[in-house]
Amino acid sequence: MHDRNQEGKPFERRVFLRSGVIFTGAVLASSALLRGAGTKNKDEEKETEVGPPEDLMREHGVLKRVLLVYGEVLRRIDSKQDFPPETLADAARIIRNFVEDYHEKLEEDFLFPRFEKANLLVDLVKVLRAQHQAGRQVTDVTMRFANLQSLKNESERGQLIASMQQFIRMYNPHEAREDTVLFPAFRKIVSPHEFDALGEDFEKKEDELFGEGGFEKVVDQVAGIEQRLGIYDLAQFTPKM
């Protein structure tokens, strides 16, 4: 007679082996999914990081918005419309503290020397560096006369107007040339590791000077100036056809 227990053992063993295979496969699949998820998260995190050129370009957005503030102030002076003088003073301080003392210093300390060392776009860098110096002198004038008393003085008002006009005229092509020529070429002269390290250095410097979320804080300051001048609503600039 056959022992039923003996007959059942091969079957049970086969079931166990199959279950083991299924279980092992499930574990391996889960591990692969977890690894895939981890890789995906790392990739997503990497994608959200802002590289040095992109960081500088978005800071140019702040500069551009302040140029629009300058333009609105010039329009109101020309049409003899009132405006809060402190809005101009606040805008000039953003130019000094954020654009000139931070943004341009990054370019001068980290970008320009690398282009000069690589002997690439040297003539452009020379002009950009000179324009930074000229811009600081112009901002000195704007900051000196951005007050109600100077606006009432014909001579000082004239100097204030000239300083804003000069600044706008120079920085529109200045930032456009950096965005379309200098910054795109930067990846060619640094290694991927150096590129990533510079991005971290930029972030640390921003936090050091302006606190965590420094860029967002400055954007909020600019938005506040725009609101006080009544030029924050983007829809008002849409042509009515």
CATH level-1 class of the largest domain: Mainly Alpha
Largest sheet: none
Give the oligomeric state of the chains in this entry, treating copies of one chain as homo and distinct chains as hetero: single chain
Count up the helices: 8
Q: What structural class should be given to the helix and strand makeup?
A: mainly alpha
Rg computed from alpha carbons, rounded to a whole number of angstroms: 30 Å
Count up the domains.
Answer: 2
Binned strand content: under 5%
Summarize the structure.
The chain is mainly alpha-helical and 241 residues long.
Verbal overview:
The protein is mainly α and about 240 residues long. The protein folds into 2 domains: about 1-50; about 50-230, nmb1532 protein domain like (Four Helix Bundle (Hemerythrin (Met), subunit A), Up-down Bundle). It is about 85% helix and about 0% strand. It has helices at about 5-50, 50-80, 85-115, 120-145, 150, 155-185, 190-210, 215-230. Helix 2 runs parallel beside helix 8. It starts with a helix and ends in a 12-residue tail after the last helix.
